[in-house]
Amino acid sequence: MVQELDRRTFVKAAAAVGATLGLRPTLTVQAGNPQNYDTSRIINYNPDMEYRRCGRTGWMVSVVCLGGHWKRINRVVPGVFQGDSWLSAKLDMPEFEKNRYDVVTRCIERGINYIDACTREECIAYAKALKGRRDKMYLGFSWYQEEMRSLGSRWAKAKAEGKPLPPGWITKNLQQTLDKALQITGLEYVDLWRITLHEGSSRHGDDEMYEMCEALAWAKKTGKARFTGVSSHDRPHIKIWIEKAKEVLDVIVTPYTARTKVVQDEHGLWAAMQKLDVGWFGIKPYASGSIFKGDGIPGDPHLQEDNRIARLTLRYILQNPAITAPIPGMICVEQVDNAALAVKERRELDAAEKAELQRATDRMWANLPYHYQWLKNWEYI
Q: What is the pTM (predicted TM-score) of this model?
């Protein structure tokens, strides 16, 4: 039976399953480091931040990280968008560059040590923002416009037309994409190449997935990526492939919102993540902003309430010890400060906080745009 777990019940359930399956315990260095762990290997360590081990990468990652998206940044950088999409941002606009540099700087100051860039535009912007301080942040990297979503569609179309593409075509194109991306961004390597799959990644046939895995293995062998993984919204498919491709799927990126609940299932995704020692980043913690009443920027009339909801969301998500970190997109330094503050607050929500978050997530589901309705599929994991 599906049921929502509070932190205490979840930890007990995780321990019971771990005893049965031999799951790897999650190493956590709490804010203030009360257990006196050796922090010398944590990059950009800050005693006010908390860190979790990111699976078999061995990285100790801040429990809140920077997601690559800058949706609604036009509210703080007027005129930055050239079209309707946030991806139309003028990357060379001085005000935009300063905004991204300042946000990354505040992340570094707060002890945040991972950025997840998943589009061509994000890779270019964050490579520039990190220039000269690469040692402070791990960089997740996906040039998604030329990765599996595009290649998989072309592969499937050719197959349907009876003109299948030659073996190795996907592998070769992915290799060329990474090489090109590194050249354009001026990077010698990426810390994590996490290829963006179709949201319903089961659309990719086994032949496509195996070719992708060949490209990931090549990237690790050549040193162009220290670790590799994928982004997917398809729970059953993720579980199948982290079991099939243990050598290359070091990290998985999936949705995880304030409405996501853990199911007591030793055969489920969260248990598989721990058993196989896979790092796990959660996208869309705020459901693309649908959980808020305003834009979360200074001067917004709903700012105080929205900041509180953001912190409740992060605290709620971090009750799950299996997840490495949520990765919210942040458009101003004040949002970084608020996220860092959430880490210092207690994990458990009291009755009033649970009720407040429930009302906010009810509003979130009601306000969810049609193209994000799939987030509701992540209410149970």
A: 0.92
Q: From CA 309, how far away is CA 182, in angstroms rounded?
A: 38
Question: In this structure, which amino acid lies at residue 308?
Answer: R
Amino acid symbol at 269: L
Reported as a single tens digit per residue, the pLDDT across 65-115 is 999 999 999 999 999 999 989 999 999 999 999 999 999 999 999 999 999
Q: Which two tokens stand for residue 332?
A: 């101003």
How is residue 84 annotated by DSSP?
Answer: S
Contacts of 196 (CB under 8 A, 6+ apart): 118, 142, 144, 147, 148, 149, 230, 231
Residues in the chain: 381
Q: What strands lie across the sheet with 138-141, from one edge to the other?
A: 66-67, 114-117, 138-141, 190-196, 225-231, 251-255, 279-283, 325-326
User: Any idea what the Cα angle at residue 155 is, between residues 152 and 159, rounded to 5°?
Assistant: 140
Give all domains of the chain, ordered by start, each with its CATH number.
7-141+256-378 (3.20.20)
| 3 state SS of 324 | coil
Q: What is the pLDDT of residues 44-73, one digit of tens each?
A: 999 999 999 999 999 999 999 999 999 999
Rounded to 5 degrees, φ, ψ at 133 are -145, 35
Q: How far is CA 343 from the centre of its chain?
A: 17
- Residue 365 has a CB neighbour count (10 Å cut-off) of 16
